[in-house]
Amino acid sequence: MNSVRHVEELLARAERTAGPGAFVALAADRALAEADTAATQVQAIEGGSFVLMATQVISPAGTDLFATTDEQRRLLSAGGGCSRVYGPDGRMITKEPDEGAEGLIHADIDLDEIVIAKIAYALARSLRAPRRDPSGPSSRATPSGRVGG
């Protein structure tokens, strides 16, 4: 199992065993911001929890300091502000951040939303579950000892 998949498994296990109010932090890579955003939303919905996606803003001066080759400058561009918080229903509950601005994000949360989201998710799963056909095979044993109808 690769390291990313291993971390995902550990996060999922920790989230399943945590009580209401569990927060999962995902570190986003600016180059993969769209994929990280989608993964964060899915994590919020599947886990029925508030999820923080944290990123670091890199200034042009920071790029000049850390990138010493053209290849590094290409990979390490200025900006990166896409930190946000998602609610248990997958909606972003922070303002859309300015990509180049440094600052903190904050969100007012209501922990009751976790319970509501988990109930809605469980209800949706139960409605999707296959129904047993009462006219189908029964589970009673026949005189020959076989199960069937």
TrEMBL record:
Keyword terms: Hydrolase
Annotated signal peptide: none
Domain of life: Bacteria
Keyword Glycoprotein tagged: no
Coiled-coil boundaries: none
Annotated InterPro entries: C-N_Hydrolase, C-N_Hydrolase_sf, Nitrilases_CHs
Key word Transmembrane helix present: no
Region of interest (Disordered), residue spans: 128-149
Xref: PROSITE patterns: CN_HYDROLASE
The CN hydrolase domain, residue ranges: 1-111
Family membership: Belongs to the carbon-nitrogen hydrolase superfamily. Nitrilase family.
Protein name per its UniProtKB record: CN hydrolase domain-containing protein
Taxonomic source organism: Streptomyces plumbiresistens
